[in-house]
Design a protein that fits this description.
single chain, four-stranded antiparallel β-sheet, 12 helices, two-stranded antiparallel ribbon, 378 residues
């Protein structure tokens, strides 16, 4: 019974997270589209069979579908949600009024704005969510004070002691213990300079963090740098004023984006394992875990929103970033890329996205022991 309740809780939290973030992303496209007088035919949360929906006064069908793994906005003049234009015969049969409402008939700048609005509003949501969190509940931090030092580890060998306050690593200021973890996660195997304060005196030590494979609370393994220090402090929530909260929200949003870029670069360069890439099961599990507290849940949604916006800006056909590349090429050339070039690009992009999705799902099944269990049956 407890397992069933736990599964229901996790599934419910996952649906809320995905539903909210997908709605926000698609609403960005929708809002800028109608501002540019483009008719939106469908606004869908999820894919597959429609569960329920309604038509608004503009003729848009708003609907919720069975599979809550994304969504789309289909605009007038497009064959499908990927913004594939109708063929020449259908375009020729359109009236002048219909052409004015078609997405493909708008200027390059207008189309680019509509496409960019989806990722843009994801970044905005991240900033606003963190801002609201910091002025209401507060910004969580654990003072970067060393409560103990592990013998024979880099920190001990470099002379770091219990009670030292770490103020910076290289040029990165350290305000709490989580900053230390983030900084070391991005510096695998590199020598770093740790700036600290001891009895009011500023000191600096140089050391090379020990690279370890660690497992997070949902069973995923990843490599990170370790100094060999322990913090015994509990998180402290400090409410911020509006100006401070906005600055912290902007800084943390940029930190999330930067961290994603660095992590992907390290995977490409072989410094991190590609097994760290998680998929829908990982997101579902984390949704359930993070929903135990409002602060954690809001932070998790903000983090996912920033990542959703960033991933959609990657220059891969079928993603928003791929369409923006098409529009940039059109602006430079003075005419769109050929239908053939766009078709093959979209096919390649779709194949790439599906491959990455399957790979991430495979990682999920491995990390949660499903593959090992099935293998043991044979």
């Amino acid at each position: 019974m407890d397992q069933l309740l736990g599964f229901s809780h996790t599934l419910g939290a996952f649906i809320v997270v995905v539903g909210v973030l997908v709605f926000i992303h698609e609403f960005g496209h929708y809002y800028v589209a109608i501002r540019n007088k483009v008719k939106v035919e469908v606004f869908s949360i999820g894919f597959g069979p429609e569960l329920f929906g309604w038509n608004d006064k503009r003729g848009t069908r708003w609907k919720v579908c069975l599979l809550p793994l994304g969504g789309y906005v289909k605009m007038f003049g497009d064959v499908d949600p990927a913004s594939v234009q109708t063929d020449a015969a259908q375009v020729a049969a359109m009236s002048a009024q219909e052409r004015e409402q078609a997405f493909f008939a708008k200027s390059v700048g207008a189309r680019a704005a509509i496409v960019a609005a989806g990722p843009g509003i994801n970044f905005l949501f991240c900033i606003l969510a963190l801002f609201a969190l910091y002025i209401s509940i507060g910004q969580a931090h654990i003072p970067a004070v060393v409560s103990s030092v592990v013998p024979d580890k880099p920190a001990a060998l470099a002379g770091i002691r219990e009670g030292d306050l770490i103020t910076a690593i290289d040029d990165t200021p350290i305000e709490d213990f989580s900053d230390i973890r983030r900084s070391l996660a991005m510096s695998l195997g590199d020598t770093v300079t740790v700036h600290l304060e001891r009895d009011g005196e500023a000191l600096s030590v140089t050391l090379t963090p020990e690279v370890e494979e660690v497992e997070n609370n949902i069973g995923m393994k990843h490599r990170t740098g370790r100094l060999g220090i322990v913090s015994g402090g509990m998180p402290v929530y400090e409410k911020l004023g509006p100006v401070e909260a906005l600055g912290a929200a902007l800084s943390d949003t940029w930190g999330l984006i930067k961290g994603t870029f660095v992590g992907l670069y390290q995977i490409i360069m072989g410094e991190r394992s590609s097994k760290e890439l998680g998929g829908v099961i990982t997101i579902a599990k984390m949704s359930g875990d993070m929903s135990q507290s409002i602060a954690s849940f809001v932070w998790f949604m903000a983090m996912l929103s920033a990542n959703l916006g960033l991933i959609n800006l990657f220059p891969i056909p079928v993603l928003d970033g791929g369409h923006l590349v098409f529009y940039a090429a059109e602006a430079i050339r003075g005419r769109p890329l050929s239908d053939r070039a766009q078709e093959y690009s979209l096919r390649f992009g779709l194949a790439l996205v599906l491959t990455l999705t399957i790979f991430a799902l495979w990682n999920d099944l491995n990390n949660f022991g499903v593959v090992g269990f099935l293998t043991s049956l044979f």
